Amino acid sequence: MSNLSPLASRTLKLAALIAFAFSLGCQAAPKNPLPAPVNDAPLANISGRQTAVFAGGCFWGTQSVFERVKGVVTTTVGYAGGAAKTATYDQVTTETTGHAESVRIVFDPSKISYGRLLQIFFSVAHDPTELNRQGPDVGTSYRSAIFYTSDEQRRISLAYIAQLDAAHAFPRPIVTQVVPLNNGFYTAEEYHQHYADQNPDNPYITICDLPKIAALKQQFPELFDEHGGR
Predict the structure, then answer these.
(1) Which residues are catalytic?
(2) Nearest CA to 57 among 209, 185, 190, 195?
């Protein structure tokens, strides 16, 4: 068995699978944004705070997208879908805890709607047709999931997935789970927070995450903010 930490193993794994990662593109974002949700909550009349929790593979890349979205106040990477006692990176990467690497997004509903966040999530943040993996990362902790915090979020999420599937927006069916945030969200270790920003030359970030930021800027220029929810 290797004595490498899971963090070091992730970087070395990419080197071993670099050709595979390039062939997948880590996440083949469409050149144009997906259609906006037909069913969405209207923008609020007054400023406030709401929370969304999304899982879309490695949380480094998901955070690097949403922290650059106008209307997003803060982003935090962590673990959802499992118990508090096993919510550590070393345990989650064993793929036995039930957690998914996730991002908690606090946003102002007067500036951006939940549906628009979903549009970004499906358009540029990950590939929702990959089951229990994203690019070179394999396992249930890398699954695609929406952890809703209200009945309204559940309704909007299910309606949007049905809309995208009906429009054949992807070549394969969407496998994103829509589940309640029953067990809570557990903040990840500090060194994971804003990892992509702090390590832009890391090969994993260069191949898998920087293209997502570029896609966000290209597809959603009106929502792009380089120094947004950080």
Answers:
(1) 58
(2) 209
